[in-house]
Amino acid sequence: MQPINESLSVRGGHLFIEDCDSTELAKQFGTPLFVVSESHLRSNLRRYKSAFQKCWPEGQVRIMPALKASPVLAVRQVLSDETCGCDVFGPGELEGALRGGVSPGDISVNGSIKDRSIIHRAIDLGARIVLDSPRELELCEEEAAKLKKVAKVMFRIKPFMSELETKSDFLPDLDIREMTQLIKYGVPTSEVLDMGPLAIELPHIEPIGIHAHMGRHSKKIEVWQSWVRHCVLLTKRLSDLMEGWVPRELDFGGGFPSFPDRDTDVVLQGYEGPSLEEYAKCITDSFRAAMHEVSLDPTGITIEVEPGRGLHCDTGVHLTTVRNIKEETENRPRRWVELDTSEVFLAVPGFNDEPPFDLVFANKADQPMTITADLVGQTCNAELLFNQVNTPPLQVDDVVALLNTGSYIEPMAANFNALPRPGTVLVRGNSAELVKRHETVDEVFARDIIPDRFASAEV
Ligand SMILES: Cc1ncc(COP(=O)(O)O)c(C=O)c1O
Question: Span 164-182, mean pLDDT?
């Protein structure tokens, strides 16, 4: 057996996900197919928990996985079984978290333009609301009063990292400190400084904490040190305006790199980032030091983080089947291997100079790569998923596995060419369960309405 990562190995020339032969999964459930390893996910979550708990004896640690990264309910159920919180964006994800077994009190309702109905629902459930604007504070007070309840709120701040000159990995011409200011999310500092004092006056509001999410601009430790310090400096300004209020919880958001860190939308790639354990140390050390700098006591404060890709990415594999092979031997010799997946299922561009995923030829994993071919997807787009890659000799019905597809891919799948979106299988040991069935063509058109006036028209 040759291990690839914690859940993947090659056994007898076949790719195994835990103890399941991926080619059998492809046959049994059909492709294209998302597959998630339950044991791998549990192990990743435990690693986050223990990394932060070890470095933060002063208080509790809460891991709040971002549902957006993998909103498959059974996948969330695995995390709920491990007892952790959940960061959600919008009413759909709020319902998803509940259906995925998250206790309402462990949910943070994040996101911009929260309307009255989501605020009402969140307060009624006892979920925490991460405020993104002064209007949301007003709505919280009004809806909590109607419900005769108290709204637990956190302020989503956008600290200005004044001294930080590091550039963003997304757009290496731009400073992170500028980008975190120019982007829409979070309460503008000038507004949050008025909101804080108002919040402690409002009878139906309980400010419980501070929230900040920078996004994954950089893996560099100096950036995280600055982010955490400036979160604390701004918290101190709020505290002074709020009669010495100190947050019970501080959430530093997500943005930790995935394993392996190969996001196609990141321009600056290829430099080593810190390990998860080093991040945990950096965040907790910086927090402790900054609290002392501003003479606030960090004892008893709960530290939260909201990993998305860092938690899910390497737990997922996408299986696809070779449906056809074409070869040009005149003019411009070229070979195309046509797969039953697509760029629209995989959240990647239509032209990929570099392979967007690591590949394993699932039933020929130990065969020599003697052929060069384009691996292309099935829509009418150019679909150049893998440009001139080495493959073993392939034939129709061979199965190809794309690795590290566990985050932000399944939820981004689209219906271009009226294609039904792929289902998801959850693997645990040698058992495999369909946890999201494949979409049907009827479902693709289920929302369409043809006005009655066409009924009599001659076709
Ligand atoms: C508020 C919030 N928390 C957490 C995350 C997760 O980020 P990542 O997947 O980069 O860890 C996001 C992603 O956009 C977010 O907006």
Answer: 90
